[in-house]
Design brief:
Helix content of chain B: 25-40%
Largest sheet of chain A: 6 strands, antiparallel
Order of helices and strands of chain B: HHHHEHEHEHEHEEHEEEHEEHHEEHHH
Structural class of chain B: alpha/beta
CATH superfamily of the largest domain in chain B: Type I PLP-dependent aspartate aminotransferase-like (Major domain)
Number of domains of chain B: 3
Number of helices of chain B: 15
CATH architecture of chain A: Beta Barrel
Number of domains of chain A: 1
Number of helices of chain A: 5
Number of strands of chain A: 9
Strand order of the largest sheet of chain A: 1-2-3-9-8-5
Strand content of chain B: 5-15%
CATH class of the largest domain in chain B: Alpha Beta
CATH topology of the largest domain in chain B: Aspartate Aminotransferase, domain 2
Strand content of chain A: 25-35%
Distance between the termini of chain A: 12 Å
Distance between the termini of chain B: 20 Å
Largest sheet of chain B: 7 strands, mixed
Radius of gyration of chain A: 13 Å
CATH topology of chain A: OB fold (Dihydrolipoamide Acetyltransferase, E2P)
Shape of chain A: globular
Oligomer: heterodimer
Number of strands of chain B: 13
Chain lengths: 131, 484
């Protein structure tokens, strides 16, 4: 079974989003997504400072099977990216919800986060897609 | 062991060396190299053994059934190769005047005409040197068409989510934004989603029909209507042309532009990175933008058309005449088959696929689209086995190698979890298909009783399971001598 932590919000396109104490939103891909993609080979992260709309392509994760776009779950400005995953893409496989985070966004519309799926609803999406 | 690693300084093979020392006296000194090139120094026998052994490690269509979905790994008749290698073709210089090469030009012209006929398009250019270049030419022509009408608001290309990855890549290379169109649960393009996606921003749609899901897009005429009414054009990716060759013409389905992979559909061994040929066919409105060179017939003679003849051309895609050797093979293949033969290609390609599909389904494999008839290929999904037995499609595919079969395409299209995309092609016998079915069933039984056997496969090949991650990350293919 793949993990779906209850404290995160999720997009149907398999990203997770977490509101940090400073109001920014940290984003990564889910355990289900990394499992489906398999061993990561390259991660392409966005430029810091980039403005992005919710649902827009913002990063690329490439595994031995395929290259997949990552969509930003919220609108805002990229303020930080995780250099660790660029150097060691396998971190996304090993720890998708902690060390394998991809980028942080200063949200321009914080309400968007609440419109994302909760863990229960996302687990149902993941379940229906894979089985 | 690389041949470089067998090298011993001073070991020579004079029998194979050039007889004459080339006269370099007219080359300016600064362009002459002073150090010797790094070449392996081995005996003739070492070289023969090295390359013979390498060839024995090949897993190829000449030695194995190769049902690699979406790749059409059919047998390529030896006649196509030997006739294309006639010395009169081989020795002809690409810059030789047209009047000394009327035979070659006649072959090229007739091939253009045959490709027009089989695809239902109004004109064909054979300049693109590969499928990807054909795709690029196709979308570049769509762009040139809109530009010629001062219609600069069209910034988007629609691409179904089942498309080959080259389609969105081509659209981006031509300066377009890609908008993905979802597929419904029957494997057809979601028409409602398409209707809401089209608009004055739509430059066109890129479609493969049959699709990569191994099914025929049934509502293609409606799709064409929706896109055309929005002012967009339809591009046909010829990847799956083998399934409909001579039966259905892309021109009749409403497509404005098409590329063909002659190296797949018209007899050239492929899979090794080329050379290929990716001709493009167009309907009336795109004719002015076709890439050059093309062949024309006037006053009873043939000649290459250039930019002077085609002022609106999207440009030149080949330094000289395109991949003439591949075009010749395609011409000979088409002549050998004739019109009736082309029909039989499509008939047997689809018959073989449907036979395999029916047998595998009957014997316990799950199909991705069990309610649909296969085209030239179909998808088996191992998600049930993956969940119950802890094996993956990759384990299954690797085990097939032990049984002497090249694995089908794995994990493509991505829409179907744990999938195998199986394309037998028309050139396999029923006996070969039956042997493949037996192997598939044996592996299914092994998966139930001894999953470790699959996990460790292949057991019988020169190399075992490769490190995919390292191979992708460390693209270091250049040999260098060890330091010191």
């Amino acid at each position: 079974m793949t993990k779906t932590p209850g404290n995160l919000r999720y997009a149907k396109s398999h990203e997770w989003a977490q509101r940090l104490d400073n109001g920014n939103v940290r984003v990564g891909i889910t355990d289900h997504a990394q499992g489906q993609l398999g061993d990561m080979v390259f991660i392409e992260l966005p430029e810091v400072g980039r403005q992005v709309a919710a649902g827009e392509e913002i990063a690329v994760v490439e595994s031995v099977k395929a290259a997949s776009d990552v969509y930003s779950p919220v609108s805002g400005t990229v303020i930080k990216t995780n250099g660790t995953v660029a150097d060691a893409p396998e971190t996304v496989n090993q720890a998708p919800y902690s060390d394998g985070w991809l980028f942080e966004i200063a949200p321009s519309n914080p309400g968007e986060l609440d419109k994302l799926l909760d863990a229960h609803a996302y687990a149902a999406v993941a379940e229906s897609e894979s089985h | 062991m690389l041949i470089f690693e067998q090298s011993q300084t001073g070991r020579r093979n004079p029998g194979q060396a050039p007889h004459h020392k080339a006269d370099c006296s007219d080359i300016p000194a600064q362009f002459l190299r002073s150090d010797r090139p790094l070449l392996p120094e081995v005996s003739e026998m070492q070289a023969v053994r090295h390359y013979t052994r390498l060839s024995q490690k090949n897993f190829s269509i000449d030695t194995h059934f190769y049902p690699l979905g979406s790749c059409t790994m059919k047998y390529n008749p030896r006649a196509c190769n030997s006739l294309a290698m006639l010395p009169e073709f081989l020795a002809r210089h690409p810059a030789a005047p047209d009047d000394t090469g009327q035979g070659l030009l006649a072959c090229m012209y007739e091939l253009q005409e045959m490709l027009k006929d089989v695809t239902g398009m109004r004109a064909v250019s054979m300049a693109p040197m590969a499928g990807a270049q054909g795709e690029f030419a196709g979308v570049a022509m769509i762009r040139a068409y809109h530009n010629s009408r001062n219609d600069h608001a069209r910034t988007e290309i629609l691409v179904p989510d089942a498309a080959h990855g080259t389609n969105p890549a081509t659209a981006v290379m031509c300066g377009y934004k890609v908008r993905e169109i979802p597929t419904n649960d029957q494997g057809d393009v979601d028409l409602d989603a398409l209707r809401s996606a089209v608009g004055p921003q739509t430059a066109g749609i890129m479609l493969t029909n049959p699709s990569t899901l191994g099914v025929f897009e049934r509502r293609i005429m409606e799709i064409a209507k929706v896109v055309h009414q929005a002012g967009g054009l339809l591009y046909y990716d010829g990847a799956n042309l083998n399934a409909i060759l001579g039966k259905v013409k892309p021109g009749d389905m409403g497509f404005d532009v098409i590329h063909m992979n002659l190296h797949k559909t018209f007899s050239t061994p492929h899979g090794g990175g080329g050379p290929g040929a990716g001709p493009v066919g167009v309907n009336e409105r795109l004719i002015p933008f076709l890439p050059v060179p093309m062949v024309a017939r006037d006053n009873g003679g043939y000649r290459w058309l250039t930019e002077q003849d085609c002022p609106q051309t999207m440009g030149r895609l080949a330094a000289s005449n395109g991949n003439v050797g591949i075009l010749l093979r395609a011409y000979i293949y088409a002549r050998l088959l004739g019109r009736d033969g082309m029909h039989r290609v499509a008939e047997f390609a689809t018959l073989n696929a449907n036979y395999l599909m029916a047998q595998l389904q009957k014997n316990g494999f799950d199909l991705a689209y069990p309610q649909r008839r296969a085209t030239h290929e179909f998808i088996v999904t191992l998600k049930r086995q993956a969940r119950a037995l802890g094996i993956t499609t990759m384990d299954f595919a690797k085990r097939l190698l032990d049984y002497g079969f090249h694995a089908p395409t794995t994990y493509f299209p991505l829409l179907v979890p744990e999938c195998l995309l199986i394309e037998p092609t028309e050139t396999e016998t029923k006996e070969e298909l039956d042997a493949f079915i037996v192997a598939m069933l044996k592996i299914l039984a092994e998966a139930n009783t001894d999953a470790a056997l699959l996990k460790g496969a292949p057991h019988k090949l020169p190399v075992r399971r490769l490190d995919d991650v390292r191979a992708a990350r460390e693209l270091d293919l250049v040999w260098r001598p060890a330091a010191g």
